[in-house]
Amino acid sequence: MLFILKKGADWSTLKEKISSSGASYRYLNLYGKELVVAWPDNLVETIVDPSVEMKVKPKRPFQLASNEWKSDPTIVDVKGVKIGDRKVVVAAGPCAVEDEEQLMTTAKEVKRAGASLLRGGAFKPRTSPYSFQGLGVKGLELLRRASDETGLPVVTEIMDPRHMEYFKRYADMLQIGARNAQNFDLLKEAGRSGMPVLLKRGMGNTVEEWILTAEYILSENNGSVVLCERGIRTFEKSTRFTIDIGGMVSAKLQTHLPICADPSHPAGKRELVHSLALAAVAAGADMLIVEVHPRPEKALSDSEQQLTPEQFSLLMQRIKALAEALGRTA
Ligand code: PEP
Ligand code: MN
Description:
Elements: E1 2-5, H1 12-21, E2 24-30, E3 33-39, H2 41-44, E4 52-56, E5 76-78, E6 81-83, E7 89-93, H3 100-113, E8 117-119, H4 137-150, E9 154-157, H5 164-170, E10 173-176, H6 184-193, E11 197-200, H7 207-218, E12 225-229, H8 245-254, E13 259-261, H9 264-267, H10 270-282, E14 287-291, H11 309-325
Parallel strand pairs: 7-8, 7-14, 8-9, 9-10, 10-11, 11-12, 12-13, 13-14
Antiparallel strand pairs: 1-3, 1-4, 2-3, 5-6
Helix pairs in contact: 3-4, 3-11, 6-7, 10-11
The protein binds phosphoenolpyruvate and manganese (II) ion.
């Protein structure tokens, strides 16, 4: 249950009423609104208090992410790049940062093609411990340098909450990967950092479970969350994962958060990336995150699915044309 408070109201009597009902609660200041989220619903349903402007009982288990209390779409600001507005924002860059030359070349190429954010993994979640694990902090330093040189803010994956100080220093947006999507301590720490978060959907998560992961970040007073569909595991083997366009649209219809699509990981093959990216934009994605490598065949991770800079440049032209046809820009 959400109690949206009157501006500057003294809510001490509300606090007492919730406490004496035996319910739990959290006071938050989100999107310029003071609110109290209290649970379980049945204990607080009948509470009325003069400090409350509006009481909302969302129909689904997620509360803060629901558009039942916030109908205006949230715009997430990453150093001036606005996600969730009219412009389709594209983040691009290598799967993993490999060395300075690879990253700088890619950053300059994707900037020239029209990307707004630079992506690149420094800490890589690999299925096998014998695969390239990323350059770690050195990779973050290189990302910062590439960002400073190109002006593209950086989005990069954090795997361990103990690394947060480095991400605060070197990154502009945290990425939570599919494999860590339900690492609840990491989600809370990402929330507490106050940094914008690109939150991937776990490959085995329903849309509801995915939105509940966002709820952990919002519960820490951090409203800057972008939900990212990156494909789920199904019985289908012709693609690496099954991109769930329907689920992405469903998430958009139930929340106020901006939605991103990652066409690279579900594709698994370069040839499919353009079609999946365009399908996601046609379905209303606010953002795309695309893997680009100057020499994809030599890449140390996800070699098959990374686009060459030329392929990415062509994709950007297509995205721009489609966005314009839809009354947006890119
Ligand atoms: C990535 O973006 O490089 C990545 C590992 O993505 P995911 O967590 O979606 O697999
Ligand atoms: Mn990858």
